[in-house]
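The material for today's practical consists of a large collection of protein records. There is nothing in a record beyond a sequence line and a structure line. As an example, a complete record with its sequence and its C-alpha coordinates follows:
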Amino acid sequence: LEIYVDVLKTIRKGTHKPTRIMYRTNLSWKPLMKVLGSLADQGLITVGKEGNHKLYEITEKGKNVLQYFSRAMESIKIA
Protein backbone atom coordinates (compact mmCIF):
# COMPACT_ATOMS: atom_id res chain seq x y z
CA LEU A 1 0.00 0.00 0.00
CA GLU A 2 2.83 2.36 0.87
CA ILE A 3 4.38 1.78 -2.56
CA TYR A 4 1.14 2.76 -4.30
CA VAL A 5 0.87 5.94 -2.23
CA ASP A 6 4.52 6.76 -2.94
CA VAL A 7 3.97 6.38 -6.70
CA LEU A 8 0.86 8.59 -6.53
CA LYS A 9 2.78 11.26 -4.60
CA THR A 10 5.61 11.16 -7.13
CA ILE A 11 3.22 11.65 -10.04
CA ARG A 12 1.36 14.42 -8.21
CA LYS A 13 4.64 16.27 -7.66
CA GLY A 14 5.18 16.46 -11.42
CA THR A 15 7.09 13.33 -12.39
CA HIS A 16 5.18 11.91 -15.35
CA LYS A 17 7.60 9.64 -17.25
CA PRO A 18 7.86 6.02 -16.08
CA THR A 19 11.67 5.95 -15.91
CA ARG A 20 11.72 9.04 -13.71
CA ILE A 21 8.96 7.58 -11.51
CA MET A 22 11.03 4.40 -11.21
CA TYR A 23 14.11 6.32 -10.03
CA ARG A 24 12.23 8.54 -7.59
CA THR A 25 10.35 5.64 -5.99
CA ASN A 26 13.30 3.22 -5.96
CA LEU A 27 11.30 0.53 -7.74
CA SER A 28 12.52 -1.79 -10.44
CA TRP A 29 10.80 -1.72 -13.82
CA LYS A 30 8.45 -4.74 -13.62
CA PRO A 31 7.01 -3.95 -10.18
CA LEU A 32 6.55 -0.31 -11.22
CA MET A 33 4.64 -1.36 -14.34
CA LYS A 34 2.34 -3.53 -12.20
CA VAL A 35 1.71 -0.64 -9.80
CA LEU A 36 1.07 1.84 -12.62
CA GLY A 37 -1.28 -0.63 -14.32
CA SER A 38 -3.20 -1.17 -11.11
CA LEU A 39 -3.47 2.56 -10.41
CA ALA A 40 -4.70 3.18 -13.96
CA ASP A 41 -7.24 0.33 -13.74
CA GLN A 42 -8.64 1.89 -10.56
CA GLY A 43 -8.89 5.32 -12.16
CA LEU A 44 -6.29 6.91 -9.89
CA ILE A 45 -4.00 7.87 -12.77
CA THR A 46 -4.40 8.33 -16.51
CA VAL A 47 -1.98 7.22 -19.19
CA GLY A 48 -1.23 9.59 -22.04
CA LYS A 49 1.32 9.65 -24.82
CA GLU A 50 3.85 12.19 -25.97
CA GLY A 51 5.45 10.84 -29.12
CA ASN A 52 6.66 7.35 -28.26
CA HIS A 53 6.62 7.98 -24.51
CA LYS A 54 3.91 7.19 -21.99
CA LEU A 55 3.06 9.92 -19.51
CA TYR A 56 1.16 9.41 -16.27
CA GLU A 57 -1.12 12.01 -14.67
CA ILE A 58 -2.93 11.78 -11.35
CA THR A 59 -6.73 12.05 -11.49
CA GLU A 60 -9.04 13.79 -9.03
CA LYS A 61 -9.84 10.36 -7.59
CA GLY A 62 -6.10 9.78 -7.12
CA LYS A 63 -5.72 13.13 -5.37
CA ASN A 64 -8.62 12.25 -3.07
CA VAL A 65 -7.01 8.91 -2.20
CA LEU A 66 -3.73 10.66 -1.38
CA GLN A 67 -5.54 13.17 0.81
CA TYR A 68 -7.33 10.34 2.64
CA PHE A 69 -4.10 8.46 3.35
CA SER A 70 -2.30 11.64 4.42
CA ARG A 71 -5.01 12.28 7.00
CA ALA A 72 -4.87 8.67 8.16
CA MET A 73 -1.08 8.84 8.60
CA GLU A 74 -1.39 12.08 10.58
CA SER A 75 -3.96 10.44 12.85
CA ILE A 76 -1.69 7.49 13.47
CA LYS A 77 1.27 9.74 14.34
CA ILE A 78 -0.84 11.74 16.81
CA ALA A 79 -2.17 8.67 18.60
The chain has one domain: 2-78. The mean pLDDT is 94.
